[in-house]
Input
Amino acid sequence: MLVVLNPRSNAGTALRRWQPVESVLRTRHPDLSVELPSDPRHATEIVRAAVTRPNPPRVLVAAGGDGMVNLVLNALMDPVTDRPRAAGSALGAVGLGSSNDFHKPVPASARVGAIPVRLDAARAELVDVGKASVLRTDGTRAVHYFLLNASMGLVAAGNHSFNHATGVAGWLKSRSVEAAILATALATIATHRPLPVSIRGGAWTHTAPITNVGVLKSVHFAGGMHYDTEVTRGDGQFDVNIWSAAGRLRTLGLIAGLYAGRFRGSRLAVCHRDTAVELRPDRPAPLELDGEITMVESARLEVLPRVLRVCAA
Output
């Protein structure tokens, strides 16, 4: 079992939170090996080296937040085949981040102390992976993979602000994640304007300006918010949840509903299910993939059905 640990996760508190978990895991997993990369590129190199050796690790563990899970996923996936580089390895995780949406919902049995873990390789399941083929603002094309969700609009803008939080939001981030998310959301809503974007599925098109679009493989996002739509990790489809353009008060009402798991009943909600979606904003826009941001001219998102083994909780 190889653990790739991001010590900078959760405002630099990850290493302190990891230490009591490590002592428990070393008892359960005598083959445990831990790497602390110096930066994202180093982390990618560690994963690539591990999965291409003759005996790759049975479990490859992302220790950190959802961004670390996304980094390990992208290092593990091969864009030539759209399959993992090591077919026999399962992806596991230790949730040391601020949101840990990858772990949700978290059963009590899937914690070490207060830390959520997904490390049961014996019960690993095959899950879908989202593939994003993007045209970046510099004219180059790239492929990124995601396990949770993609978004464009308010949530992507809020994620970008949260990831680079300073001032009050930065101070709150290391003390109360939910308070920091709320502060970031309020600041983002105050300046956000509806985004004209063409959203195209297999048999439908949405061309009206939007507040946000979420393309989901998990209903959980941005800390405590979650949708009430039907997507599961292995159903071979996305939920495409569009927030219609609205004023600030109605948008705040929609967000309040999402904290209670209510979305479909909102007058602002437009819901589709599909296996592929194209996003074409009228200007360069941030695309969020599992909390990580890329500025794009356009993006095509498609489901790769049941291609990755993920440890059970």
